User: Fold these one by one.
Assistant:
Number 1:
Amino acid sequence: MAARRRQFKRPAGERRYRKLFIIAVEGLKTEPEYFAVFNSRESVIQVKCIKGDHASSPNHVLKRMEKYLSSERLLQSDEAWLVVDKDSWSDEQLMLLHNWAKKAENHGLALSNPNFEFWLLLHFESGKAVFELKRDGHHDHLVCLQCGRVEEFYDAEIEKRQVAIAKERGFKLQEHSLSLYADCIKPACPHRK
């Protein structure tokens, strides 16, 4: 089957062509929802997310991309990207994707670590950070990478150092946030799953 070429039509009064990013992902929901944000009318790019299925290995992500590209030819300015969680796969499996990305200038590979869903859950839920447990006063966060538990803390020395570092570099600190991501080393952590 011959590849179809996307038509470039610029009707009067409509926006100009938006660069297209084809992104093949592992997941069915989280990653497609994340990338859908870029498809607003105001965006200068367009994202087509090739959703995963229950076969999420790097090889399956690559096969979905190749299938899409065999039926839809990219314009020269468009890009095709593979997005996978680095921590889920071996180096050998990821090398397959790396080799594919090297074959063409408009191909790319993005690896997330730790896994993408965990990162999103830690950072955003309805547009707000989910680990803001307290609303009173400034504090920092210590996030367990094993169970996701968050400890809020305040340390006057850390606060002083942050202000001093900004000043040393010619800045006046207006606002800041510190999150430390760590593995729990307690042998019998009650929060570990």
Number 2:
Amino acid sequence: METGAALLLLVALLGKSSAVSFYGDSISFSPLQMNTDGRYKVTFFHRENGRNDCQNQASLLCEGGVCMDLDESDTLQTDQDSSGQGRWCQTEKRTTATFQANGTSFTLSWDEVDKAMIRKSQSSPGNSMYGIVLDAGSSHTSMYIYKWPAGKQNGTGIVTQHSECKVQGGGISSYAGKHGGAAKSLEECMKHALKEIPTSRQHQTPLCLGATAGMRLLNIVNQTESERVLQEVEKKLRSYPFLFKGASILSGQAEGAYGWVTVNYLLENFVKYGFVGHWLNPGRSTIGALDLGGASTQITFQTSKKLENQDNLMKLTLYGQTYTLYTQSFLCYGQDQIIRKLLAHLIKTQGVKSQVFNPCAPQKFTISTKLGEDVFDSPCTEKYRPDNLDPQMTITVVGTGNYQQCVNNIKEIFNFTYCSYSMCSFDGVFQPRVTGSFMAFSAYYFTQKYIKEITNITLTSPSRAVEAAKLICNMTMAKIMEKTKAEEKYIKNVCTMSNFVQVLLTNGYHFDEASFPSISFQEKAGGASVGWALGYMLNVSNDVPAEGLSMMKALPSGSWAGIIFLFIVFVFFALVYGVVINRNRTTRSDII
């Protein structure tokens, strides 16, 4: 289903042959349950002309605030476990009414040819605040525009993803030594932001850039160049009429924590939009976040255990609640860097030769590789670097497609033996036992996606992960290409990544047959991209002052507690009074 631009178009819905009238004031809704792909069903009740009942239903299939026709196949195949309801049969006849979907305002009206129409409402700039986050990753930069009501819930904005823009070219770290390149790469997406955000709101719109592991690595190799690139993009971003909040390199721990916030926000574990249009605290348990980027990987989850290493401790306050998190980021264990490290390890063990055999590459698959540019020009491979290396030398990597040799070589990249704490993940890093459910996103999602396409195996347990990796590693590239529509550049490393993900999750984080099924691999949730950017904007929105309340809010929990207490007291005295009156009446009747 198309999203984004479709929000701006007039979409025809519910082409019914019988005339239908909608009744009542505007209603707000959100799904009671949502499919893992972010889709859900909304059912509106209406009554046909001349009838007084409210039994007729019109169903819409919605995703990210965009609603389309729902036919029987949709109902059976994608929405059998999702439903949301709104009744529109209460007062006088209306020809137009407004409702909300995921925080976005829409208008549903009845036209002259008996078709319901849905379109995005022209909302007043005074009712919304905006924020822009540039996620400057190791391989590319993405810009996200977020929106939230000017009134806030317990100090934090109720944020939804408004739009997204992919910056062309590599990450900003790839412009090291290329003056002006990083700044220029952002121009097209910033033009998009100027069009999307009302002029009257632009000066109040926070704009920030967060760089992750790619820039962390550049900062290790060349701090001067890292600072120059940041200063360059900062100067460019300050030239726009937004409220610039800074360009900085996020710590790995912060990246992990903000990813955790995003996951739990999108799953409505902090706050949700209730049936009657109130923001409510659902009282749900949070779930952990597993992020796998290009240069680093993060694990974050809520814990009540005492953390033996305070570097892993992070406390966050959102919507009036404080959460204690364990978070850890592993630099050099992202997808791109693990592929480099594997090649560096193979070259070190086999020696610098014209051919290097890679058991994690498809059988007989060959690729030319520059020792410097493709392997050793990274601090992640420094310890494998041979003496007297010629960085311009090109070698041929030949795939042998051997599962056992592949997984053994990948395990040798980790250090599973050293640990100075009661328990560790790997490389001597403390980690308490994983508990609860987890969402795995970014490269985790794409790895399992390719595994499913190629083997038809879903990653639900360590044994299934091993089974899938064995099948993939024994295939030729031609056989793999028959199974998937993905381009060769995305699947040439699928054997490497299927084994790496398996080793990282089981040997590293200690997910076992009992806990592994609690991992959900997802790219999006609730129509929004999963990553650290939304969590970061939620944190930034704490600093944005609230305006006149533009949404109905639930009473704070303290107020509810007071009201409930008074209600109980009232009921108690009413019962006592009733008993006393009844006894008096009984006494009088006995006397008579």
